[in-house]
Specification:
Blueprint: H1 3-14, E1 18-19, H2 37-48, E2 55-60, E3 70-74, E4 77-83, E5 89-93, E6 108-109, E7 112-114, E8 121-122, E9 134-136, E10 140-144, E11 168-176, H3 180-187, H4 192-196, E12 201-206, E13 216-224, E14 228-240, E15 243-251, E16 257-267, E17 273-283, H5 288-293, H6 297-327
Antiparallel strand pairs: 1-14, 2-10, 3-4, 4-5, 6-7, 7-8, 9-10, 11-17, 12-13, 13-14, 14-15, 15-16, 16-17
């Protein structure tokens, strides 16, 4: 190996960046022939059969403050969330059993929440009030609700995550007019990435030899502008019916995960389903630059969230359009996409 080749090899080893120009639109390879509708549908059907154990993501861990309660609408049910004095997450029905007050922004005393209207102390077994199981995984908050067709599990089925001591976590939350299955279907179709999001992804190929019926493995370049990119190998898997996880298998950020959780809220005035998307990016890297960046994580998180929001502006249209087609809304005057 020549000196020049040796120097280039060392530079490549130290930097994840590669000169990989963004293909212009006329040069983009259409992906419709590779995107197997049958395969996507079969994978979605299998995902919908995976029991979530009654657990739903209700937001970021930081959404639930200390000292007062918040409420969320989950699968048509009002749910109150609060933290005990020791920081543990609690959840229960969102209405006070006394006169039906909404338990929003109520003070917390010890491990009980005090109704805003009359001060009734509510907690497990108090005045007939029964709490729901709740769990805080350090990134996301969860609640377990009785759900038809699901067998209650002791906790949510979390994927393997990077060590929180060496990772940066950021969470994007969005609301859309579709069902949770439409969010999962979007992520089970990686083929749309390089065509639909050319500003973010390029050089995407699915490795059929490494993939199977329940796991997609692909090679893709995350774009950093029009000239540079970061090539990685990633997998997509569905641990339950409302979650899909992308894991970086090789390349920059190996071990990082992007968890996409879809939580049903209920229906709008037209009877259409409303779903909240909660996407947690938990990034890690062995590189010195990343380790030096971790103390400034609060400055990095908004950038990660903004990137996720940009992608979901496109993918929300994908999920909502899929739902509208399935509902037969097109041509009926109900299609809100124009």
């Amino acid at each position: 190996m020549s000196l020049k080749e040796t120097v280039l090899a060392q530079v490549r080893a130290r930097s994840p960046l590669r000169v990989m120009p963004e293909p212009p639109l006329p040069a983009l390879t259409p992906t419709w022939a590779d995107a197997s509708v049958r395969r996507i549908s079969a994978a979605l059907d299998r995902a919908q059969q995976r029991d979530a154990g009654g657990w739903y993501v209700v937001g970021r861990s930081g959404d639930v403050p200390s000292g007062e309660s918040i409420t969320r609408l989950i699968a048509g049910r009002e749910v109150a969330l609060w933290r005990a004095a020791d920081g543990r997450l609690h959840a229960g029905p969102g209405a006070c059993p006394h006169m039906g007050a909404l338990l929003e922004r109520c003070p917390v005393a010890g491990d009980t929440v005090l109704c805003r209207w009359h001060g009734m102390a509510l907690g497990e077994g108090r005045h007939g009030y029964r709490e729901h199981p709740a769990y805080d995984d350090g990134v996301l908050a969860w609640v377990q609700l009785p759900t038809d067709g699901e067998t209650p599990a002791s906790g949510p089925r979390l994927p393997q995550r990077p060590d929180p001591e060496t990772a940066i976590a950021a969470v994007y939350v969005g609301r859309m007019r579709c069902e949770p299955a439409d969010v999962i279907a979007n992520r089970l179709d990686p083929w749309h990435g390089a065509w639909f999001h050319p500003y973010a992804f390029s050089h995407l190929t699915v490795d059929e030899s490494a993939s199977d019926a329940d796991r997609l493995v692909l090679d893709v370049t995350f774009r950093l502008g029009r000239t540079f990119g970061v090539p990685v190998r990633a997998s997509f898997e569905t641990p339950d019916s409302r979650t899909i996880v992308m894991t970086i298998l090789d390349g920059e950020g190996t071990g990082s995960v992007v968890e996409t959780h879809a939580t049903p809220l209920g229906t709008d005035r037209d009877g259409a389903a409303i779903t909240v998307l909660t996407e947690a990016t938990i990034a890690t890297s062995e590189r010195l630059g990343f380790r030096l960046l971790r103390p400034a994580a609060r400055l990095v998180r908004p950038l990660v969230v903004r990137t996720a929001a940009g992608l979901w502006r496109d993918d929300q249209d994908y999920a909502e359009r899929r739902y509208a087609v399935r509902r037969g809304e097109l041509g009926s005057g109900k299609d809100r996409r124009g």
